[in-house]
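Lecture 7, part 2: worked example. A protein chain together with guanosine-5'-diphosphate.
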Amino acid sequence: FKKVKKSLTRTREVFGGLVDLVRGRGKVDKQFLTELEKRLYLADVGGAAVATIVDRVKQSFIDKEITGEVEEFVKKQLREMLSAPTQGVQFAGSGPTVIMIAGVNGSGKTTSIAKLANNLKLQGKKVCVAACDTFRAAAVEQLTIWSERIGVEIVKNQQGSDPAAVAHDACERVKAREFDVLIVDTAGRLHTQTHLMRELEKIHRIVQKQIPGAPHEVLLVLDATTGQNAIAQAEEFSKSVKCTGIILTKLDGTAKGGVIFGIKSKLGLPVKYIGVGEGLDDLDIFNPDEYVAALFE
Ligand code: GDP
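Predicted complex, written out as structure tokens:
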């Protein structure tokens, strides 16, 4: 909890206005509701979510004194806007688990793959990563450095080679050598958006064909510092492959942690992990209760 609380320091500052308001004096009147709306917006909670919360507070508390109940109610509403807690990755019943990772360049995709690989290795899993972002030389290099540091296997090819071929080879290898988990990196940008989406679909089809039930997860990496833009990006990606969850990165550096409240309602996807720093152990399984509690500390 301490780590989450620390990483939300800047977001907590923007939530301060909201916390002060619900802990204030007076009545829940029109002015209070207008203020509530404004402060939720300022905290990046986002359109529909804001309207719902304000409306519910109005229905339950209009003309009543502001008491601790109002605060508890608002916290409860915020908790309900977050996805239910998950166990992180959903593993295959038998055979290797395949996790595809998507996201635009700079979102923290490579770092998140390294953190996840490390995390799963520490759980005793035999992990392999596939460097399918062959469009960007630096991505393959970075992933190679990380995999050596962590001590996990990497399947790669020269820059510019066919990412689908790399995905194919990686599937063959994890089957032959009985790996528990294959994490597949994918391109974050190509010549065109259509090209990028087609490539994702192709990699998806190949792992599907090679390994029964795969991919077991398609996790989309979103950068929290981009605020509501992160949600727009996720909507684009969801058009080509069905994502199963979100890794929300860089929460430690941003005041825009409120963006998390729009993700479930807008995308219908659970946030599975949050990135709270640049280090290997700075990836946490998302816990909605802790998140809201940390904002109101
Ligand atoms: P990619 O282009 O999406 O693969 O992005 P990278 O993984 O290379 O990350 C881009 C930058 O963001 C790097 O400097 C990372 O150290 C940094 N980064 C990634 N995740 C986090 C995070 O959770 N918190 C912070 N503070 N920085 C992060």
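Residues 103, 105-111, 188, 249-250, 252-253, 275-278, 282 surround guanosine-5'-diphosphate (CB under 6 Å). The beta strands are 97-102, 127-131, 153-155, 181-185, 217-223, 245-249, 271-275, 283-285. Keep this in mind for problem set question 3.
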